[in-house]
Amino acid sequence: MHRDNGDGFKIRPPHAGMISRRQFLQRAGGLTFCLALAPLIGYGTAEADELISTRDKRAIQFNAYVHISPDGTVTIINPAAEMGQGVMTALPVIVAEELDVEWDDVRIESSPPFGEVYGDPAFFNRIFTTSSRTITNYYERLRRFGREARQVLLENAAEEWRVPVAELRTTPSLVIHDKTGRSISYGEIAAFAGTGAAFDGGEPITFKAPETYRLVGKNIPRRDLPGKVSGSAEYSMDARPGGLVYAAVSRAPVEGATVRALDEHDARSISGVIDVIQRPESVAVVATSYPAALKARDRLEISWHEVEGMSDFDSGDALQQHRAAALDLSRSGFPWDTQGDISSLADNATQVYAAEYRTDYVYHAQMEPLNAVVSVTDAGKKAEVWAGTQAPANTVEAVARILDIPVHDVKLNRSLLGGGLGRRTVPSMDFVVDAAWLSRVLRRPVKVVWTREDDLRSGHLKPMTAHYLRAAVDTRGNISAWQHRVASDESIKMLDRPSYEAFGKVPVTSMLGASHHAMDRTLGDAYDLPNRLVEHVAMDTGVRLYPVRGVGATPNNLAIESFIDELAVQQNADPVEYRLRLLHKSARGRRIIETVAGMAHWTRERHERALGIAYTHYVDTVAAAVAEISFDQKQEKITVHSVWLAADVGLAIQPDNVRAQLEGGIVHGLGYALSERITIKNGLIQQRNFHDYSVMRMADAPAVHTELLHSDRAPTGVGETGSILAPAAVANAFAALTGRRLRHLPFTPDRIREVLMT
Asked: Three-state DSSP class for 304?
């Protein structure tokens, strides 16, 4: 951090034709607000009947999400992808609560990929499990579907007994008529309700009072865990249709490169090899076993055409260009968040401070290798797919596109995912398309499995970033003006152009977490910075990018929370007290800061250890974390001993699962903080596996203590919260311990050494 000796703050007009962030919210509905505007379409129609028929053919469809069989089995349809976050239980629990069904009677099935019925309106009515928004965006819809199905049960019972609906009530899986003492099970109603069991909107809907909840807010055992423990859970890797063969694929090392020359002679000599098949951008070896395919692929000799502008790309040089762009105040940025007038305040400030921060490329590093099985039949006119995907429509569309067939001729068998972190939303669905085009050529089912080396070499990366922040501080120590410039690529611009354009061509992923005028219901829970300019400086490296867990919020939070800490030090203020002052308009934010400080015993003296704090308001959640670290100077190693995290998540659907997500996010975020980085030289990713792309190891994981602060709000997002907070908390703890500031994520030994030597 340094005092700024520039010419004060200046606001520049945005580029001609560029929309403002306010216009973006009005045009695109933000990422959340359009939920209230989108109709709940698709249920009670003949089309829905066909799309959402369950495996239980006796079941009566009460609406798109609820099917009840005469034996009392209630099938609840789950639209989201289960990748370890517990959504396969959390979403059905919302339905089951308002339906008032016995949880043991519930069976859960994944939805088909059709957005018309199951899509998330915040993502243009597509099924898209990402961005910490699944519970938030589906909550009102699912409780309404559950309540409407219960109303249909009541109406059918009333008609059968010829009594007013108002005289009936439900207990779990039963309709009760207190006047006569009669009761009837949901299954019995389904037996005579027939196909007319649809809500007609005639009766007003009233939801259950929270104090009567039996399932929501309770620790309901997750439905996906027993199978994972026993090994019976099905992943796409387990699919083995008849006649299956295996493929290993060599892909272009640089986006856009094509095969220049191929020598396949040695590869074909391996026992079990069926064929070597070439496309412009890849070469595949197909064999009777996966080991044979891998062994043969290693014997391929391939040379690739160079890609202009990428073959000499160096990530270190590119980061310096990012830094220069962030510092160049003559270069206009996109005005993401503006308020007040900061141009004239520097003259009235006691001091103007400035600081820089940087972050490297990051890789998804999901645990399950990318894999898919595709069987193309009917002379290439139909396809069946087995894949773990966060974006079913993207998967179906990618297969239909490569095969040149209609999407309704692609059948998707959705499976569990061994982690996703955004990688399994990529529109190209490259790992699925590999299997599709090979199956078409071979006319038999093909399984493609990417090795970890494949995944790293062909990774879709989180963008590198450079940040320049300035703050004017008045005579009372208050921040009178704030400027934050973020230089980065926009991660969806190149590989998901339709979404980029649908969001108004604004840096929606890059600038998440950078706003102090929140995009969501946390309005007022940001720091009070009445005069501010937060802007994005667009870079265009040509590197293959896509959102990774935490997207722009992780580097943005590192910059904001580190800078706030530095300002507190300059004002001789305690970092907790300084944040409380900045949150004077937010009772929610102050409560979180006070809670986490109490959990960590913030004021207690530590021996050879120190604490650092970080705060965020993200996807409606308000949260703060405190990290306790020590530093071994001989080994140049930061050890994180404990992390305390407090979060206001509104209504916690499954409290234990929310805690697990927050704790897992902290551990993941510590990997971002201490070791995870991708470097590129001559256009090629340098890392190969987990020996040189180091994720957090169990031996290094700290004790994580979480506390949920409940409120009367609807459920808020938690999937990324921990990963957003962890790096800044560690950075601030290191500064408290050593008096030196780490400004470049991750905090590698060489960067620590450099900071301590200056």
From this structure: strand
Spatial CB neighbours of 319, under 8 Å, sequence gap ≥ 6: 358, 360, 464, 466
Distance (Å, rounded) from C-alpha 145 to C-alpha 134? 16
C-beta of residue 95 within 8 angstroms of C-beta of residue 65: yes
Q: How far apart are CA 449 and CA 451, in angstroms?
A: 6
Average pLDDT, integer, range 198-227: 89
Amino acid found at 476: R
Q: Does residue 746 have a cis peptide bond before it, meaning omega lies within 30 degrees of 0?
A: yes
Q: How many helices (H) and strands (E) does the chain have?
A: 20, 29
DSSP state of 423: G
Cα distances (Å, whole numbers) of residue 615 to 132, 139, 486, 582, 631: 17, 25, 19, 11, 23
683, 311 Cβ separation under 8 angstroms: yes
Cα separation, 654 vs 85, in Å, equals: 11
Helices (H), 675-740: 721-738
| Domains (range + CATH), the chain | 33-222 (3.30.365.10), 236-308+370-449 (3.30.365.10), 315-362+461-757 (3.30.365.10)
What is the DSSP-derived secondary structure letter of residue 212? Answer: G
- CA dist., res. 115 & res. 123, Å (int): 10
Length of the chain: 758
State the DSSP code for 345.
T
Query: What φ, ψ does residue 681 adopt, rounded to 5°?
Result: -130, 135
Q: Which two tokens stand for residue 275?
A: 């064929």
pLDDT digits (tens, 9 = 90+) for 718-754: 999 999 999 999 999 999 999 999 999 999 999 999 9
User: How far is 515 from 24, CA to CA, in rounded Å?
Assistant: 14
Q: Which helix (H) or strand (E) holds 497?
A: helix 497-502
Is there a contact between 199 and 192 (Cβ–Cβ < 8 Å)? no
CA distance 593 to 720: 19
Q: Is the C-alpha dihedral spanning 309, 314, 315, 318 positive or negative? A: negative
The string of pLDDT tens digits covering residues 284-330 is 999 999 999 999 999 999 999 989 888 889 999 999 999 999 999 99
Q: H-helix or E-strand containing 185?
A: strand 182-185
Round to whole Å and give the CA distance between 503 and 508. Answer: 7
pLDDT at 344: 54
Distance CA 551, CA 620 (A): 16
Per DSSP bridges, beta strands 273-279 and 282-287 are: antiparallel
Angle in degrees, CA 529, 533, 538, rounded to 5 = 140
Closest CA to 131 of 516, 523, 520, 422: 422
CB 643 within 8 Å of CB 702: yes
pLDDT at 11 over 70: no
The packing angle between helices 553-570 and 721-738, to 10°, is 30
Q: Which H or E run contains 145? A: helix 134-161
Residue (of 6, 76, 113, 343) closest to 220 by Cα position: 76
What angle do helix axes 575-582 and 553-570 make, rounded to 10 degrees? 110
Q: Cβ atoms within 10 A of the Cβ of 371, count? A: 24
The C-alpha atoms of residue 42 and residue 116 are separated, in whole angstroms, by: 6
Q: Is 86 left (phi over 0), alpha (psi -120 to 50) or beta?
A: left
Residue 713 carries which DSSP code?
Answer: S
Q: In angstroms, rounded to a whole number, what is the distance separating the alpha carbons of residues 479 and 512?
A: 22
pTM: 0.92
